[in-house]
Amino acid sequence: MFGVIRKALFQLPAEKAHELALEGLAKSHALGAAKRMYPRVDAPLRVMGLEFANGAGLAAGMDKNGDYIDALGDLGFGFIEVGTVTPRPQPGNPKPRIFRLEKAGAMINRLGFNNKGVDHLVGQVTKRTFDGVLGINIGKNFDTPNEKAVDDYLACFNAVYPHADYITVNISSPNTRGLRDLQGEEALNQLLRTLANRRRDLAGDHGRRVPIAVKVAPDLDSEAVTAIAAAVSRHQMDAVIATNTTISRDGVQGLKHAEETGGLSGRPLLESSTAILAALRDALPRDIALIGVGGIASGRDAAMKIRAGADLVQFYTGFVYRGPTLVAEAARGVKAARGNA
Ligand SMILES: Cc1cc2nc3c(=O)[nH]c(=O)nc-3n(C[C@H](O)[C@H](O)[C@H](O)COP(=O)(O)O)c2cc1C
């Protein structure tokens, strides 16, 4: 069934296909169809102090506005991460801005955080009936200078805090100029210190300490990994998500669209993102969780991330190519690898 739908969707420009797929899912949700077809794999685990029904999650960027949480929730995910959201709505970069590199099981995107703003997202997440774990991924507006980036993260953090099971601080998308500079030692320490202080206040106000995850790029040298691990640890963050898309074009050279500007995701990212994950596991204390993302297209890939040190996994591009069956496969892969750990 998915094969037929995929074939039709892949005739369309990637972003149009994406919109139609999500609208189709929403219809299927209204009819109650998908939930019956894709029962959630029951493989409970506890990470960041949260209970997950299974370890397979939807990575950020597919549902940037929280418009499809319940529809996506029908597909058996243990957790869903919405966003990246910014304080103010913004249109993102001109289209076309998503490209499929089918032969490589990959995509390149330069969306640039197109989203309807944090107020819209909060309105949507408060309406959700999805009973899995919900992460909310926050960023900064494209026209906010890096000196003021902390203000944008704080504005989003304050707004989403009461509604999120965990909050992801995205400092690694390649499509917002200067964003990845926030991974530098000084900027990162300033950002995480500010968020940690604010969390202390909000935890008191709301009677709940919401875990914070920091999402990093795969394009990091070992010095950068060490500095990030130190900052994450110093400011008592709860998890690192490794990784976002890459600016490298290894594995896709010569393919159509390979030279498009943007972040590369999918199969060519599997090894490099897993290497960063493993380096982070070595550098971080055990009580800081790791979420492995990048290039997962099978249960075996998911298991590989767990063996490299991940506690949970997420995927985006593999889901586009493989469809909803990947969710249960990945959940079983996580379960099997954890069982053998
Ligand atoms: C079209 C597209 C949009 C994305 N948007 C976001 C985003 O808004 N925020 C974010 O943190 N990551 C975003 N990502 C990155 C994914 O969450 C993920 O980290 C990356 O694609 C690697 O995983 P994958 O190989 O399974 O796709 C996006 C990825 C794609 C393909």
TrEMBL record:
GO annotations of cellular component type: cytoplasm; plasma membrane
Full protein name: Dihydroorotate dehydrogenase (quinone)
Catalytic activity: (S)-dihydroorotate + a quinone = orotate + a quinol
One function term, GO molecular function aspect: dihydroorotate dehydrogenase (quinone) activity
Residue positions binding FMN: A60, G61, M62, D63, K64, T84, N137, N170, K215, T243, G266, G295, Y316, T317
Protein family (similarity comment): Belongs to the dihydroorotate dehydrogenase family. Type 2 subfamily.
Binding locations of substrate: K64, N109, R110, L111, G112, F113, N170, N175, N244, T245
Cited CDD domains: DHOD_2_like
Cofactor(s) essential for the protein: FMN
UniProt KW Membrane keyword: yes
Any one GO BP annotation for this protein: 'de novo' pyrimidine nucleobase biosynthetic process
Active site: S173 (nucleophile)
Primary location recorded for the protein, binned into one broad class: membrane
Cofactor info, note text: Binds 1 FMN per subunit.
Superkingdom per UniProt: Bacteria
Keyword Flavoprotein on entry: yes
InterPro entries in alphabetical order: Aldolase_TIM, DHO_dehydrogenase, Dihydroorotate_DH_1_2, Dihydroorotate_DH_2, Dihydroorotate_DH_cat, Dihydroorotate_DH_CS
Domain spans labelled Dihydroorotate dehydrogenase catalytic: 46-335
Topology in the lipid bilayer: Peripheral membrane protein
PANTHER family reported for this sequence: DIHYDROOROTATE DEHYDROGENASE (QUINONE), MITOCHONDRIAL, DIHYDROOROTATE DEHYDROGENASE (QUINONE), MITOCHONDRIAL-RELATED
PROSITE patterns, per database record: DHODEHASE_1, DHODEHASE_2
Keywords: Cell membrane, Flavoprotein, FMN, Membrane, Oxidoreductase, Pyrimidine biosynthesis
